[in-house]
Amino acid sequence: MAQIKLIPYKIEETVDTASEIPEGIAMIKASEKWEKGYRGNGSVVAVIDTGCDQTHPDLEDRIIGGKNFTTENYGLPYDFSDENGHGTHVAGTIAANLNGEGVVGVAPEAKLLILKAFDKNGNGKLETIIQSIQYAMQWRGSQNERVRVISMSCGTTQNDKRLHQVIRQAVQNNILIVCAAGNNGGDGEESTNERNYPGYFKEVLQVGGAVDNNGRLAAFSNTNDEIDLVAPGVKIKSTYLGNKYALMSGTSMATPHVTGAAAVIIEQMELAFNRRLTEPEIYAQLVKSTIPLKYSKRMEGNGLIMLGERAFSPAQKESSLQGKVYIIPEASL
Fold this sequence. Notes:
The structure is a single chain. By secondary structure, the protein is an alpha/beta fold. It has a single domain (9-320), classed as CATH 3.40.50.200. The protein is 27% helix and 21% strand. The strands form 4 sheets. A 7-stranded parallel β-sheet has the order 4-5-3-7-9-10-11, with helices on both faces. Strands 6-1-8 form a 3-stranded antiparallel β-sheet.
């Protein structure tokens, strides 16, 4: 059966405690939305990953449900605990609680549907990814909630027709799918065309690059002609196994920033329009919420996701233009 893996990432450091807004979330100015009352309330995000540590205090009450599609945890369908840490880290960046303790996610009042499709080594099967997406489409909460966004930080070079078909179905059901582009761009060349699926499918929102806190694009970030936007992805602090926190780097870390931003924007725009947004409308609002970093479209797409009304300071803008790449060693799984 065809295989699919997590996008490679690097664990920079683990720490026991934290009490802060992570730098990536501060960088995209998510707090400006929180101050106006927009925190992702009402949005359900499906996270297709390695599961999640449900006992982490920063994720208390954020998880609305889940399912295990792997043979781990004895194959028990509703034991979606995390044996790797990647899924827990992604979940925290999306929706960790805003309570003055630990870390906070981009959309601290969004709900998470945890779909465990990868094992402790980051390995998965295309069939389980397809099943996870189908489950997300069909899932209904106790108050008839539906999944609005799917987050996936995984990739394969195989252009699988079945995977493409189920993604099209999800998008037709007005679910925004946010995918990492991948970390195969080690040469830093913008002319290369590194294709990872599902990120390269036209129907998804592809997060093309991980940027550091000065807006410099990491050299490992894939470049291609389907990049939609970029987000913070270098030394991102978020929730980790054992009630700890970890700093990680990779496009896997950039993707949940965009996923969380989508949840916040859905809440804000649906209140403004007094109706449910379609998937193309959610995509359009995210594209509007970007600022250019002066790279090519193949590297940054529409630019850096930015939830605040104020962009970089002049000093930050200047530093973002100094040097094309920021090199982080890539870890293999």
